[in-house]
Design goal:
The chain has 364 residues and is an alpha+beta fold. The chain folds into two domains: 6-234, 3-Layer(aba) Sandwich (Rossmann fold), CATH 3.40.50.300; 240-361, OB fold (Dihydrolipoamide Acetyltransferase, E2P), CATH 2.40.50.140. Helices cover 23% and strands 35% of the residues. It has eight helices and 21 strands. The strands form five sheets. A six-stranded mixed beta sheet has the order 6-7-8-3-9-10, sandwiched between helices. A hairpin with a 2-residue loop joins strand 1 and strand 2. The protein is globular. Keywords: ATP-binding, Cell membrane, Hydrolase, Membrane, Nucleotide-binding, Translocase, Transport. Part of the ABC transporter complex PotABCD involved in spermidine/putrescine import. Responsible for energy coupling to the transport system. Residues 6-236 form the ABC transporter domain. It catalyses: ATP + H2O + polyamine-[polyamine-binding protein]Side 1 = ADP + phosphate + polyamineSide 2 + [polyamine-binding protein]Side 1. It holds the Pfam family TOBE_2.
Length: 364
């Protein structure tokens, strides 16, 4: 098995009597894009600061390339950080900002010039070397911060919510550029964000944090399609959650009921008759049918459309079930498909196929 580049072993971190991280263990591998994901205050930025050396753990050990770095200062670790605020020098040009670390190391001027221009080319800022930082847009300043961080080719680049201040379009563009840059450099990126969509689209693996501990580690597909618990399911994307009970077992399936409608589901957790479960269905996995389209509504829930939200590529529907419970459904929009011409208050049937749901043990 590949040796981890970074190993986090049983890390605890407290500020006074306030615990921030609680027994966090994690391995990070060379060349991967790892995202620390969670709400504000969950400990993800603290962990980043521990790796960089700006904070020290209360308990536990951090290894980089096999060396314990608990007491090693930031400048002695082969990692660099891109901060949310960029931390650029406003009185210096783009060139001088990127060259700053090399000048501190007394690198020769010809080598500085070559490496600075190479770094600016990597982040698509050729021709900007003599610009003043104040003349740049937010996205351009972000690229300068990244160029400065990668100029020494560290083993690890730490990025603390670097895209949070950018507008939506620029943020999307920078997500793609960062991922391409990481693959081009074959460098390990550890990226902090609270944005689930950002984490899903950019990461090789995601670490989901909650109140100072790790809930789940996995690929974006694994995290989204097979959440480890209710917290992960609710935090990543939209969900419809039903509390159900196992009524019967048949081969690899189990029978339960939603809104008094019997349903068969895949028994993915070896559940037993009588077990209470959370049944989770993503909006995009729900199919909505008009009454005239269905001859046999077995396994379907009756409902009524109470809201229609057109989003360009999708149509999002809010459907009130017989109990009054509102669920969300999302269908890809096709302007040539008459089936997607829904109307408010329309009576419909709602369905998902066995295996499209996620079953989790009940949490009170």
């Amino acid at each position: 098995m590949t040796t981890p580049l970074i190993e986090i072993k049983n890390i605890y971190k407290s500020y006074g009597n306030i615990p921030i991280l609680n027994d966090v263990s994690l391995s990070v591998y060379h060349g991967e894009f790892l995202t620390l994901l969670g709400p504000s205050g969950c400990g993800k930025t603290t962990l980043l600061r521990l790796i960089s050396g700006f904070e020290h753990p209360t308990q536990g050990e951090i290894y980089i390339s096999g060396q314990c770095v608990n007491r090693l200062p930031p400048q002695k670790r082969d990692v660099h950080t891109v901060f949310q605020s960029y931390a650029l020098f406003p009185h210096l040009s783009v060139y001088e900002n990127v060259a700053f670390a090399l000048r501190c190391k007394k690198v020769s001027e010809p080598e500085i010039r070559e490496r600075v221009l190479d770094a600016l080319k990597l982040v698509q800022l050729e021709g900007f070397a003599e610009r003043n930082i104040k003349q740049l847009s937010g996205g351009q300043q972000q690229r300068v911060a990244i160029a400065r961080a990668i100029i020494n080719r560290p083993q690890v680049l730490l990025l603390d919510e670097p895209l949070s201040s950018l507008d939506y379009r620029l943020r999307k563009d920078m997500q793609s550029e960062l991922k391409q840059l990481q693959k081009m450099l074959n460098m390990t990126f550890i990226f902090v964000t609270h944005d689930q969509e950002e984490a899903l689209s950019m990461s090789d693996r995601i670490v989901v944090f909650n109140h100072g501990h790790i809930e789940q580690i996995g690929t974006p597909k694994c995290i989204y399609e097979t959440p480890a618990n209710l917290y992960v399911a609710m935090f990543i994307g939209e969900t419809n959650i039903f509390d159900v009970q196992v009524h019967a077992l048949k081969d690899q399936d189990l029978m339960t009921a939603v809104e008094d409608v019997p349903l068969f589901c895949k028994n993915t957790g070896n559940y037993k008759v009588g077990d209470r479960l959370h049944l989770i269905v993503r909006p995009e996995d729900i199919r909505v049918w008009g009454l005239s389209e269905v001859d046999n509504p077995a396994g379907m829930l009756p409902g009524r459309i109470v809201d229609i939200i057109y989003k360009g590529s999708t149509v999002d529907l809010k459907v009130a079930l017989a109990s009054g419970r509102i669920i969300n459904a999302s269908e890809f929009f096709d302007e040539d498909d008459d089936k997607l011409e829904y109307t408010l208050a329309e009576q419909v049937w709602v369905q998902w196929l066995p295996g499209w749901e996620v079953l989790l043990p009940y949490e009170s």
